[in-house]
């Protein structure tokens, strides 16, 4: 299949996101997809010569393991503009230099992204232009709605990609294949058989110099509002008719419309923490509030945990526990499905009959299923065994997959406008309560599992 020539225009090309993630992903993509007819333009606020820009691109491509004739050709023709992306004259100059249909990637903070979108709304744009907006989409529910309305005035929804790299296509398809291609799982994937669902993203990393963004977002907005709610949607949604992006995203939207804080009780079903000085993996970390750029008065959380419910026929009464945090003891990135205990064990069968768990690791992609079987030696005593397998890895990293979708018109990994608003709607009561300090912020030592006083959610 052939695709029209595209010009990838990266706004924020001089920033860390571009060098560390976007360009390595692009390099992988170009190496794997030589059929893509592509031009690269960087736009940034930092003065940079063409030679300096090409060196930056080459270095990032090499970091991603990309090296091919297509790569060399792309780099040689790449250009850089020292420009103000919120200025219509500067933007028009950039777009007029594009030899292909522009795909604009917003590697920018939310406030700047909104300003650029307002500028674009006043301009005559090339036919077929694509806009790719990084998360978070807006800064709250009101701004997300306003941004969606503004975008709808000058560009079709199918040409808007709201990026969530966390849901790489391989991750989505692994979960869908597990659920919908296995009768064993799909028939038990409901409130009758599932006791609870946990979605975890614990990191050992601390702030890593991201105070400018993170201290205004925190764990709730940085991870749960966007990434983890998307995972919840994939885990809980009804079977889509096809894997077409419209059907898939429609099923995800339906699940999120049914999602809210468990029992609508933010005070008791949400909690937050912040790390103090400690040691993680042999590395000493200072207290979060003492990191450069952090304002202690903001009470920004570095650990968030919330119980949600999906109020529909399939999931009524099943808590979904979403948790994400930094500077924690273990790097844990997984989905845990805990099944209900069997209603009765035959008399004479000894052992606890521990409820089975299905654990799906998100990084690396791996699956484990616990089963109770008759134990070795004494056939009447139960033991738990674990079956495990690894999912096939993708040829591309998460950003390579995202860019492939943007450049080929595949919206599977794009967050639809109504879904972006639903995610903000779901967490708005939590944000409001936390800003009012209705829920206290607890401390935990860096390198620990979290605050010592925390008990499992949901609370009775």
How do the helices and strands line up, and which of them pair or pack?
Elements (H helix, E strand, L loop, with lengths): L5 E6 L4 H17 L5 E7 L5 H14 L5 H9 L1 E4 L5 H9 L4 E6 L3 H11 L9 E4 L7 H12 L7 E3 L6 H12 L2 H4 L7 E9 L8 H26 L8 H13 L1 E3 L4 H4 E7 L1 E3 L2 E3 L17 E8 L8 E7 L6 E8 L17 E6 L2 E10 L7 E9 L7 H11 L8 H19 L5 E5 L15
Parallel strand pairs: 1-2, 1-4, 2-3, 4-5, 5-6, 7-13, 9-18
Antiparallel strand pairs: 7-14, 8-12, 9-12, 10-11, 12-13, 14-15, 15-16, 16-17
| Mean of residue pLDDT values | 92
Number of helices: 13
Here the CATH topology of the largest domain equals: Dihydrodipicolinate Reductase, domain 2
CATH class of the largest domain: Alpha Beta
Q: Ranges with pLDDT <50 over ≥5 residues?
A: none
**Rg value:** 24 Å
Counting structural domains, the number is: 2
CATH architecture of the largest domain: 2-Layer Sandwich
Question: Ends: how far apart?
Answer: 56 Å
Q: What percent of residues are in strands?
A: 15-25%
Number of strands: 18
């Amino acid at each position: 299949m052939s695709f029209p020539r595209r010009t990838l225009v990266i706004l924020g090309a001089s920033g860390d996101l571009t060098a560390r993630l976007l360009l390595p992903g692009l390099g992988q993509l170009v190496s794997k997809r030589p059929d893509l007819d592509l031009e690269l333009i960087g736009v940034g606020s930092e003065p940079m010569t063409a030679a300096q820009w090409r060196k930056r691109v080459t270095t990032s491509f090499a970091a991603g393991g990309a090296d091919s004739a297509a790569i060399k050709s792309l780099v040689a023709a790449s250009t850089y503009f020292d420009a103000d992306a919120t200025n219509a004259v500067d933007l028009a100059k950039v777009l007029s230099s594009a030899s292909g249909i522009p795909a604009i990637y917003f590697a920018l903070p939310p406030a700047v992204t909104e300003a650029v979108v307002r500028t674009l709304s006043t301009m005559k744009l090339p036919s077929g232009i694509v806009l790719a907006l990084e998360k978070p989409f807006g800064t709250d529910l009101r701004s997300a709605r306003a941004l969606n309305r503004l975008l709808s005035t000058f560009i079709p929804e199918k040409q808007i990609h709201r990026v969530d790299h966390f849901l790489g296509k391989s991750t989505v398809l692994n979960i869908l294949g597990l659920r919908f291609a296995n009768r064993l799982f799909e028939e038990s994937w409901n409130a009758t058989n599932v006791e609870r669902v946990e979605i975890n993203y614990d990191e050992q990393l601390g702030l890593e110099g991201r105070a400018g963004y993170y201290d205004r977002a925190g764990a709730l907005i940085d991870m749960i509002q966007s990434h983890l709610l998307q995972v919840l949607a994939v885990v809980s949604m009804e079977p889509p008719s096809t894997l077409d992006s419209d059907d898939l995203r429609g099923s995800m939207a339906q699940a999120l419309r049914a999602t809210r804080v468990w029992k609508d009780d933010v005070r008791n079903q949400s909690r937050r923490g912040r790390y103090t000085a400690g040691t993680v993996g042999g590395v000493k970390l200072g207290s979060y509030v003492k990191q450069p750029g952090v304002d202690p008065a903001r009470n920004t959380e570095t650990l968030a945990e919330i119980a949600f419910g999906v109020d529909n026929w399939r999931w009524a009464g099943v808590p979904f526990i979403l948790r994400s945090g930094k500077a924690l003891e273990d790097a844990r990135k997984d989905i845990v499905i805990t099944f209900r205990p069997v209603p009765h064990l035959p008399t004479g069968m000894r052992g606890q009959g521990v409820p089975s768990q299905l654990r799906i690791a998100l990084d690396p992609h791996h699956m484990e299923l616990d089963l109770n079987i008759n134990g070795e030696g004494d056939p009447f005593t139960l033991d738990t065994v674990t079956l495990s397998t690894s999912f096939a890895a993708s040829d591309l990293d998460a950003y390579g997959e995202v860019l492939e979708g943007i450049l080929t018109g595949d919206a599977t990994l794009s967050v639809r406008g109504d879904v972006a608003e639903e995610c903000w709607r779901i967490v708005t009561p939590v944000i409001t309560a936390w800003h009012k300090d209705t829920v206290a912020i607890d401390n935990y030592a860096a390198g620990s599992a979290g605050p010592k006083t925390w008990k499992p959610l949901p609370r009775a």
